[in-house]
Automatic annotation (TrEMBL):
InterPro entries for this protein: IPK, IPK_sf
Gene: Ip6k2
Entry's Gene Ontology BP terms: inositol phosphate biosynthetic process; phosphatidylinositol phosphate biosynthetic process
Annotated GO MF terms: ATP binding; inositol hexakisphosphate kinase activity
The UniProt record lists the keyword ATP-binding: yes
Name of the featured protein: Kinase
Gene Ontology CC, one term: nucleus
Family designation: Belongs to the inositol phosphokinase (IPK) family.
Amino acid sequence: MSPAFGAMEVEHYSKGVLLEPFVHQVGGHSCVLRFNDKTICKPLIQREHQFYETLPTEMRKFTPQYEGVVSVSFEEDEDGNLCLIAYPLNGDHDNLENLDNSDCEPKSKLLRWTNKKTMLLENEKISKEWVRQHRKEEKMKSHKLEEEFEWLKKSEVLYYTIEKKGNVSSQFKHHNPWSMKCHQQQLQRMKENAKHRNQYKFILLENLTSRYEVPCVLDLKMGTRQHGDDASEEKKANQIRKCQQSTSAVIGVRVCGMQVYQAGTGQLMFMNKYHGRKLSVQGFKEALYQFFHNGKYLRRELFESVIKKLTELKSVLEKQESYRFYSSSLLIIYDGKERQEVAVDSDPEDLEDLSEESSDESAGAYAYKPTASTVDVRMIDFAHTTCKYYGEDSVVHEGQDTGYVFGLQNLIDIIKEIRDESSE
């Protein structure tokens, strides 16, 4: 490394944060990046930014917490490796310094440090790392890495085996092909525009997966209509076609992405939006069943909580005057890590003392029931959201977003069906 570049690294990186791929992104086309353990960021879109700035109080519990705006630059080291660095907006260092970074270990990529060498996020290196992990050594020798990675990206449903040793969550690194695809596309776009522009605004949002050790994530595209009021005729026709050819037109909801940990086999299952578009209503129901099944048993203890939260969200949205959440998604998240189970006839006091340690597989001779588990329901992606309070919109809607509410009700009904059928 040249002395000049080293000096630049010390000066700039002490004020910025190296952004990494957010490995739990399962849907969407906008690149989501990891800022730190508790915060992610994504390119700022004015309409979405306005939504978070003017969010109704009653909706805040159903959206990620908004944490401000940063400036992101595209940079290369002397070897031409690409990376994205977040800096305080307009020199306001408090914007970064006030964020909680206490959860980051000394070896993390936080750029509080001054002379640490950056982690390389160049596309080819990430691609090769994925292939090395996915294929056995002898098979790798007969495949070109680039061709193999292209195949992985095009596969609509993937299973990836995680070694059962150590902390399962620590092995989540560049496993999700969809997040890698979005990250690569973002790097390419910024590289192409580097000569004309190298300062981008990104919004900071709560990392909804941070509380879970092994996040299982379901991304659902909500509503019977996906195109915004400002969409071109071509875009409008394309979005209408996608809705008509999927479950969106029939039940107001379709699978946009999924990540599920299969405890029975130690595998991660990924499903992308292309597969979700092909599902029939019955196929959608089966995908939901698969999302709540860990390969050993159905996570029935999650049903009541998710139904309650979906019902509460539906009630909130029914009262929102003029809002339309076109192309917005709904996330359902829970922890795939196996929770300790207890004998059906256990003393109630034993239930209060349960830890979240893995169940003892040697105790299979007894009757067990799963303990309670947390599940989260959040709305995301508001790039095409509109409301009469925005002012500049040419189209003003009245009343509730009936397409979104319709989808929520059908989602609730289908989950109830799965719950009831599994208990028979």
